[in-house]
UniProtKB/TrEMBL annotation, chains A, B:
InterPro entries: S04_transporter_CS, SLC26A/SulP_dom, SLC26A/SulP_fam, STAS_dom, STAS_dom_sf. This is Sulfate transporter 3.1. The chain crosses the membrane at residues 111-130, 136-157, 164-188, 194-213, 251-272, 370-387, 394-411, 431-455. GO terms for molecular function: secondary active sulfate transmembrane transporter activity. Pfam families: STAS (PF01740), Sulfate_transp (PF00916). It is a multi-pass membrane protein. Residues 1-25 are annotated as: Disordered. One of its GO terms (cellular component) is membrane. PANTHER family: SULFATE TRANSPORTER (PTHR11814). It comes from Sesamum angolense.
Length: 630, 630
């Protein structure tokens, strides 16, 4: 019998055997440690970050290392004056957006408006030094703080205890940073991958809806905003705005400048008409100057710590997912590489002092390097030092308008429609996120969406599709008869393709399903009164990437079932992993090497040969012929 | 351009086109509702339970329906005297095992020994009527109550409040039953599938270890047992024993009778020597008669309810998983069918009065039908009514011995070694279950094992393998060069096989990985100083069973990346689902129908044709040629 031992690859063992069929190889045995090493590498270092370090002199390695941690060292030396001009313009543009937005979102989060400005410039500097995206402009996510507001609001009443609230906000941000940095350092980038595009669309649409509804209050001059929130909508909103404005960059300038303009006009108007005395709410006094480091303000009180950590982690994951997505989409345009894990570390560092936003403006403002972030930071700093009094008269209505304008850009119903057309399940995920956020809250929306997405992956494995294959006319190719209407069944032979790895989660299902296919086939043949009954079952394992021990015992049982029905089981094209395990589990000997084929075509050929040459029940002679030659 | 519209299947559209290549078909469009219906059917009714009802007259349908719910109606009429003789012997054999075990395990669970006997006969009757396995003998799982003991023990102190404890035990069993029945009614059988073979081996080994350690106390006559637990070990133990005893069924009788024998001998010895007066613990008084229905004793006090429910569910899942596994393995021998969901309902009904055990004995005692269960039930009932006094003098040591004997059979180290050889990850799962149970507790062990198993499924999708394909000598077949040492790379063409569905969870990884493969290939070509550089990248989508919207945009980006490098992207053999979605998402138009091939062979053929005929950079003429003919 062609058992496992004479299957280990050796030059001649691959030649065609006497019956002109190819050998299915068991891949060369690999030491456990090495295969483990490979697996871990693929899991945690898919982007092979140390690629560039290979065979370099130590000093070069050191420099590369520094550049890896601080990309600024890489592009810094090559920095020119034209670059600077571009960056200057870009920086100022962003600032013009950053300042009103900073104030708006701080206000939204029930934080002192001034904080919005602070958090615009420190993180920007950090990212300029550590970030790997040249276009991702960073600054306030008071929007991020909005998420906090909604979560912190549950434990602290902002009216009763504003100071505690403020400190918790700092603490949560700190944990966001810590969490992101750790994810990056431990190469857990792929956690973020579990937020699908559909999830983000639905989630942000929902958040934007909620925020808009609350802003209407602001516009109607009602009591200041409740603590609802979305996360990275601003970035996305502007991103989508610029998408629209791709064709006419002139108009883009207007949309980028609009917020600042309206703030200025609004303020002047109020100042002249003294409207603030007639009930129009204004920002009021902003204290000048840079704020003291907030390390002192961190609150690790065990009562609030869980909330702070939870808030921090949720904020972290969302902002990362979006930040990396946006950064990557720009990287696509300019063809450079974004290292997800590196990004996380950078974001983390930023968040340990405060979060980010506003890429697309930067990109469209034609920035060349992260220097634009530095310029932006400086302009904001100048504003802080000298210009804050100007905002005294800015009416809150304007801020609300700015926010709503940003939010409306986010509710991406076209994307939702696209999802419905292309992939119903993605649409379901998207909707559940949207509805969860709008009618319940952020966490529920997220959990629902992610839960569904993961469930889909599990169901894919738990309920793999099994396809009946037929022969494509004038070819030796066998394909699904559902997909190819012209594929012809082969009389007496049932060919099944299994479309997923055979794991514990689907062994029971596959056993049931395969026997059902056999029943159906035999019923069909009976009813159609075929001369030749079912004789062979061929399992095409091409799409079975892997198998576990439960899967192997399932194959064992399937073989028993098929034998008992007086049929023969053949396997077509089992992959390397599968062959390895079938070999170790001695299943190759159970089924017999001569029943394993390189292609469905060869399997069918052999079966037909036996069908027509000799009595199919005693294929021993053919088997002998095979096994001898094997 | 060969866009989607002219691809809808129509007889002629499948003919070879002018260039002699086959068309890749988009499967005929299916109304959303029907495809949804199919999906749900496959998910919840994989075994097609209503199959036999198809085209039957209504009266027949009704009878079949009754038989479906109560299998006894199916075999009852065909019942003969020989059957009864076999069942009688089998029933008595089981009883001889059931009685001592019932008492032992009740004692273990700190429940009155008498309960062990009660729960041996009522469930047996239920299962006899409703169960679909002829060989699964049901009765006490005071072992199941052991699991309860450990979980209930945390909230109630048996010494202080034995009555409350007893009632909670009843309540938990009730919920076990309710949960199992619901699972079955809602066709959620597949939840049990997520307990892999590896998990069960490790879990039961661990539990058995714990129980043995505690029994030693019993043997050494220490204070009575702590509340530790395993679940279905008895069944498995006897199952494995009989496996060993397959060859010599004579000996099997001994092993089956042993417990009763030792109980009798032990009791007589104590009775004669009056050892009970000298510190040998005995069972003591057992009250005669049938116990009052325990419905009154259910305790729904909100303080204890959560624990009761939790305990019930854990017990339920485990016992189901094992019960179905064992039942199925017998069904294998005798070639009849076990309906997982129906089993659940039956088990559920049983548990609403108490759990099960002891299949293998039944099987080896050669029972013919579930009547053996009835016989067993009757014998136990007789024991209850008249023979309980005999157990007065049974020394606890004997019970401990019986338990340990059963447990030792369970620690299936051979299975663990097999796992290590065949599948390292399964071994890891098994060990984590074992260690979790031994060093922490049942729940932790389970959660660890199931968590790992699910993680594996997720990782399979999050980090799919990508394989480089080469040509198998003297064939048009392309296979992994890792598996087939003799497969030859095709100069100028990189062929990649993706081994998993392209879902949100792996899009980022695949993007990175594919570009890395391209880099590596180009480096290799450079270093080897090949004449012809890399020109084409062929993605073999055979193993890509499905794709979501994130996946499609990933393909879009990959195409951009490849175009930018001046290469050409071709797809080979996308499946029905994939073609459907690529079509809806208009990706077929982006890439061009002429770049999608039925097989890798044809793709390579076309690429080579272009490589050698015309300048590869401008393949437009060829494309035209294709698309016109398309």
């Amino acid at each position: 019998m062609g058992n496992a031992d004479d299957m280990n690859p050796s030059a001649e063992s691959y030649n065609l055997d006497a019956t002109g069929r190819h050998r299915v190889a068991v891949p060369p045995p690999q030491p456990f440690v090495r295969s483990l090493k490979n697996t871990l590498k693929e899991t945690f270092f898919p982007d092979d970050p140390l690629r560039q370090f290979k065979n370099q002199p130590p000093t070069r390695k050191f420099i590369l290392g520094l550049q890896y941690v601080f990309p600024i060292l890489e592009w810094g030396p090559r920095y020119t004056l034209q670059f600077f001009r571009a960056d200057l313009i870009a920086g100022i543009t962003i600032a013009s957006l950053a300042i009103p937005q900073g104030i708006s979102y701080a206000k939204l989060a029930n934080l002192p408006p001034i904080l919005g400005l602070y958090s615009s410039f420190v993180p920007a500097l950090v990212y300029a030094v550590m970030g790997s995206s040249r276009d991702l402009a960073v600054g306030t996510v008071a929007v991020g703080s909005l998420l906090m507001a909604s979560m912190l609001g549950n434990v602290v009443n902002i009216q009763e205890n504003p100071k505690l609230y403020l400190h918790l906000a700092f603490t949560a941000t700190f944990f966001t940073g810590l969490f992101e940095a750790l994810l990056g350092i431990f190469r857990l980038g792929f956690i973020v991958d579990f937020l699908s595009h559909a999830t983000i669309v639905g989630f942000m649409g929902g958040a934007a809806t909620v925020v808009c509804l609350q802003q209407l209050k602001g516009i109607l001059g009602l009591e200041h905003f409740t603590h609802a929130t979305d996360v990275v909508s601003v970035m996305r909103s502007i991103f989508s705005q610029t998408h629209k404005s791709k064709k006419k960059p002139r108009l883009f300038w207007i949309s980028a400048m609009a917020p600042l303009t309206s703030v200025i006009l609004g303020s002047i108007l109020v100042y002249l008409t003294h409207a603030e005395k007639h009930g129009v709410q204004v920002i009021g006094h902003l204290k000048k100057g840079i704020n003291p480091p907030s390390i002192m303000d961190l609150n690790f009180d065990s009562v609030y710590l869980p909330t702070a950590i939870k808030t921090g982690i949720v904020t972290g994951v969302i902002s990362l997912a979006e930040g990396i997505a946006v950064g990557r989409s720009f990287a696509m345009f300019k063809n450079y590489h974004i290292d997800g894990n590196k990004e996380m570390i950078a974001f983390g560092m930023m968040n340990i002092v405060g979060p980010f936003s506003r890429s697309a403006v930067n990109f469209n403002a034609g920035c060349k390097t992260a220097v634009s972030n530095i310029v932006m930071a400086l302009s904001v700093m100048i504003t802080l030092l000298f210009l804050t009094p100007l905002f005294h008269y800015t009416p809150l209505v304007v801020l609300s308008a700015i926010i709503i304008a940003a939010m409306l850009g986010i509710i991406d119903y076209e994307a939702a429609i696209h999802l419905w057309h292309v992939d119903k399940f993605d649409f379901l995920v998207c909707m559940s996120a949207y509805i969860g956020v709008v009618f319940a809250n952020i966490e529920i929306g997220l959990v629902m969406a992610i839960g569904l997405s993961v469930l889909r992956v599990l169901l894919f494995v738990a309920r793999p599709r099994t396809l009946v294959l037929g022969n494509i006319p004038d070819s030796k190719v066998y394909r699904s008869v559902d997909q190819y209407q012209n594929a012809n069944n082969v009389p007496g032979i049932l060919i099944l393709e299994i479309d997923a790895p055979i794991y514990f989660a689907n062994t029971n299902y596959l056993r049931e399903r395969i026997s059902r296919w056999i029943d159906d086939e035999e019923d069909k043949l009976k009813s159609s009164g075929e001369m030749v009954g079912l004789q062979y079952v061929i399992l095409d394992l091409t799409a079975v990437a892997n198998i576990d021990t439960s899967g192997i015992s399932m194959l064992d049982e399937v073989k028993k079932i098929i034998d008992r029905r007086g049929l023969k089981l053949a396997l077509a094209n089992p992959g390397g992993e599968v062959m390895k395990k079938l070999n170790k589990a001695k299943f190759l000997e159970t089924i017999g090497q001569e029943w394993i084929f390189l292609t469905v075509g060869e399997a069918v050929g052999a079966c037909n040969y036996m069908l027509h040459s000799c009595n199919t029940k005693t294929t021993s002679d053919v088997s002998e012929k095979y096994s001898n030659s094997v």
